[in-house]
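Here's what a typical entry looks like (Phosphatidylinositol-specific phospholipase C X domain-containing protein):
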Amino acid sequence: MDFFKNLADSFVKEVVDPTVSFAEDSARTVVREVVDPTVAFVEDSARTVVREVIDPAVAVIETQFQRPRDVTEQEKILDNLLASNGSRFPGDDYHSPDRKNWMAHLSVEKLTLNKIVWPGTHDSATNGIGIDVVTRPLGECQTLSIYEQLVRGTRLLDVRVQEDRHICHGILASYNVDFVIDDVIRFLSETHSEIIILEIRTEYGHKDPPEFESYLTNKLGQFLIHQDDNLFNKSLSEILPKRVICIWKPRESPRPSRGGLLWNSDYLKDNWIDTDLPWTKFQSNMNHLKDQPSLSSRRFFYRVENTLTPQADNVVVWVRPVTDRIRRCARLFISRCIAEGCIDKLQIFSTDFIDEDFFDACVGLTYARINGRI
């Protein structure tokens, strides 16, 4: 019996125990090197999916529901402001008898550059840009040609170009800038006392057109008003027959030199903010305007843009429905400038889709200034 017991003990010790130990070690190895990494990988993958897919998707969905509520709330603020304070101001009932020649009708002797409230257009040369119905609503900020805008009273143009001298708005391109310049020259040839601020810049993300400064001076030379810090207090009669303040804003090329035919970016400033919320933009416009020097001491043009910008993270990305949230508030903004004591700082007022009411508001305020009503 002892023999068989010893044989069994030996078998257990030399065969069974090593086999069990090997199996246990193998199992631990499988757990350590296969199961645990697989579980960890699955857990990491799940966290990555949550972090990079599910959370952003939830955030986008939440934004889509929240943004309309934000817009509605901000529009109500403006509506309440309009209801409680109104949009009347001195000169708001003035209507020029001739929009094409409105500066002449206000008197070129009395009208100094720093008393003008310049009606301007934002992205002025975007009429017909892109593909109708498809991309045009994403980039078209004006439906009138440059000439039509000038005839209807616009006196500041915001023109964006790319390397090949075509008009552009972001990635959308349109006609050659020659069409803009030709429209400006056509208008100047048909009038005698209207002065235009023509801002031309290289669009963000694009390269400067080669030799563009020479192009502008060659095309517009006879009309160009030299860069001059003393110009702002001068009357139109002292500036004529020169008619165009051309501000060239390249991205990489040298800026126009001081005292030259073209003006550099120091002479046209603004504080653009990227938002589609109307009260946010209204407040920003007002606060930045208050920070500017008064017109009597200012030696640059300052622009307020009564516009909104569609946002990529929102369902509503067409320009018109977004910018219409604030476009209707031009007269309200002017009346608030008076109420808040900064009307003497308002100078260039720009809009998308300029219309006669916006023009009348700007020119009415100019009329009030030169006649001592404000």
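Residues 1-63 form one domain.

More examples are in the samples folder.
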